[in-house]
Amino acid sequence: MTIAGSDSSGGAGIQADIKTMTMNGVFAMSAITALTAQNTLGVTGIMEVTPEFLNKQIDAVFSDIYPDAVKIGMVSSAKLIEAIAERLRFYHAKNIVVDPVMVATSGAKLINDDAIETLARELLPLASLATPNIPEAEILSGMKINDEAGMIEAAKKINAKFGCAVLVKGGHRVNDANDLLCFNPDNSEAQHINFTASADCGHNENEKLTKNSAVCEWFKGKRIDTNNTHGTGCTLSSAIAANLAKGFTLDEAVRRAKDYISGALGAMLDLGKGCGPMKHSFNLTGKFAENMSLRERLMRSVADIWPEYNNHPFVKGMETGTLEPEKFRFYIIQDYLYLNEYSKVFALGAAKAKSLETMKLFSSVIDAIANVEMDIHKGYMGRLKVSQEEIDRTQRHPANLAYTSYMLRVAYEEEEPEILAAILSCALSYEDIAKKIVENNPQSVNHELYGKWIRNYSGEEYCGLNNVLVAYLEKSAENYSDLQLEHLCEIFRACSIHEMNFWDMANA
């Protein structure tokens, strides 16, 4: 839902918001705060709605189609701001993105002082994210911003003062196309917002700075040489809100929004005699309208667990080559016993397969486990002096037993997609761990003891098979409801918790 003013020229306000939200794959709804007469040369007239009528619009939306996110744009009077805040509190609105339109990039003040004070007092504490430009960030932080360091300091002040995440937008005066996101993960539950737990959310050029509990992350962009920038603030905040509504984490939503706005600016639409609009429809059937894939949903469900794998002492020991061989020996025996049970999960999947193609896939994986993965383990057993007799008399550790018993229960009781979700937690996490080890220490693949393990699980053959399994999961669950997809995430997460217990067991 967008709550903002109308732009008769279509480049900003409600019109830009609806175009942006549609292009980013969500259904857009609106409550109009004011009608404006404007074009690319300027605004020639404004007619505000009454607070009572604004409330009726908001009620009409929330009482029928509850929004998954709310974007708030320019609201020029204190009474309208108060009305919006009261309704958002009443409906417990979530994913609120406030574009605090107070000051133009030129420095001209767009709303009066009492409206600014009301916005700061009533709306920002409710927000999940505020998206001020440099002049607006100066007002909200009470400090002058002259450089990158000033953006960081101001962002942290705004975050601390209002309790919402803040995206300080760079501009021609300061830091060009680079924007700074500052958030406090401790406030995530209160603000109905999620953050990516990993240190990198998709852009290698991104940098994160942490001080106390606040986290700042740069989203670096390339300046596009165009005068047609009318409505960029509306568009960016609407794209962020759309992606939050689809379930993306805040930093993912910002990244996707910046990619979208770069494309809209880069399309070089040239309309009007002044500062023209962007081409919002530059990628009408493209990637920005895509919903979150099932793989992305699964990864989001374990965003707090998987990073811990890579920092686990056992994994770090393999990465640095300092892991005690006796611990690895214990792990290899237990993992061999695990693979016996893991193969049975695939066997049950083959028995339940609804097509010959799927049955062949499960059977081929059993063959790969028996003749490739377990052969690697047997090779280690020879080096570590583990006899078949020792394996035969070894009991599965309780953590191993709990893990395999859970997967087998899923395989007996549920269907193909659920079985694949259980299987993939182990398969994909091993790939992730091995790739991170190689990324952190490229020479680890040459280690005399752990190198073969790292090479196998980071190799093209293993990762390629994982991609095939993921594709089968996506296909088999394509008609699943949100509730069923959530259940797949629950299985995936439960197996990931068992996986962590497995690493703890190996390191004991």
In short:
The chain is an alpha/beta fold.
How would you describe what is shown here?
The chain has helices spanning 13-23, 51-62, 78-91, 113-123, 134-141, 148-162, 232-245, 250-266, 294-301, 306-310, 313-320, 325-352, 356-383, 388-393, 398-413, 416-440, 451-458, 460-476, 482-507; strands at residues 2-4, 30-32, 34-39, 42-48, 70-72, 96-98, 129-130, 165-168, 179-183, 208-211, 214-219. Strands 2-1-5-6-7-8-9-11-10 form a nine-stranded mixed β-sheet, with helices on both faces. The model is unreliable at 197-208 (pLDDT under 50). It is elongated. It contains 19 helices and eleven strands. It folds into two domains: 2-286, 3-Layer(aba) Sandwich (UDP-N-acetylmuramoyl-L-alanine:D-glutamate ligase), CATH 3.40.1190.20; 306-507, Heme Oxygenase, Chain A, CATH 1.20.910.10. With 508 residues, the chain is α/β, with parallel strands linked by helices.
Q: What value does the Rg take, in angstroms?
A: 27 Å
The number of helical runs is 19
CATH class of the largest domain: Alpha Beta
Largest sheet properties:
9 strands, mixed
Strand content: 5-15%
The name of the CATH architecture of the largest domain is: 3-Layer(aba) Sandwich
Average pLDDT level: 88
The number of E-state strands comes to 11
Looking across the biggest beta sheet, what order are the strands in?
2-1-5-6-7-8-9-11-10
Tell me the helix content. 40-55%
Q: Structural class of the helices, strands and pairings? A: alpha/beta
